[in-house]
Structure formats: structure tokens, C-alpha cells
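Example record used in the benchmark description.
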Amino acid sequence: MPEHMAISSSMAAFEQYYRADIKPLIGFVIYLGATEHEAQDIAQEAMKAALLSWPAIEHPKAFTRTVAQRQLRRSRAKVQNETQALVSRTGPGGLAAAGTHTDEGLRQYLLQLLSLLPTEQRTVMAWTIDGFTPAEIAELTGHKPATVRSHLRHARKRLTQELTGQEGGRHGP
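Model output (C-alpha cells):
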């Protein structure tokens, strides 16, 4: 097969993957804790990385989610650093209160519940919601399978406590 036909076939395969997975990828990034706008930008960056590496990628869904998770982590670290710099310049009383929460249905409720989890538990839940097994999550995130299962167990326990209103479901006053 001539080289230009192979490239054309590869591009067609990427386009098909992109169309099928861009919306689920955005949802995955939202489950990780991003806003919808952040998730759209991060998903596009992950898809761009996939396109650039397309011939070498064996598992595109896992690849794009790994790239997106890393991009969100970098983005959050940057925002945290900028926020800390702003707080140190203005003092804690100089910042406006956070935005208000409005009920937008089940999806928003799920996002609210996930936001209660520590980062590692939320990450494992996002991968799980997206259809990955604990063994796959461990391989893709570089954790031991037992660690992933532990995070998943603790996340489920915390979410169950929140849903049933049991003591210990919330930290702090």
C-alpha cells in the first residue's frame, strides 16, 4: 500500500475514534473535578497528543485519559500556585466568596459527591465510572492494584456514608 494511502487510512481511524470518544473523554475529565470548559480544553489537548502519536498507540481510550489526567493535574497545580500568590498579596479576606451551587440534576449531584473525595479516590472513581477495571487503572496510573482497590473501597464507603447520612461521612465542622 502506498504511504499516502496508509496515512489516509490512519487519519480515518483517528477521526472515527475522535468522534466516538470526545464526549466521553470530556465527561471523564469532569468526573476528575474539572469544570465543563476546562474539560473541553483538556480533552482537546489529549486528542491532539493522540493524533501526534496515533500510529504508536495501542489503546487510545487509555492513552487519552492518561494524558487528560496529567494535563488536569498540571493545570490545577498552576491555578493553586497562582491562588497562593494572590492570597499572599491580598490576604485571606481580600478574596471573593466562591460561586454558588445550583441543582442541575443527577449529573451535578454526582459531581458534587465526587468532589467530596480526596484526589486519589476521585481519580479512581472517575476511571471506574469510565469503564476501567482496578487492574487497568493500576497499570495506567502507575499504582499497585491493591492501592487502587483500597482507594476504590474507601471512595465507595465515603459515598455510601454521604448518601445514607451516616456519621463520618463529612470531615470538619
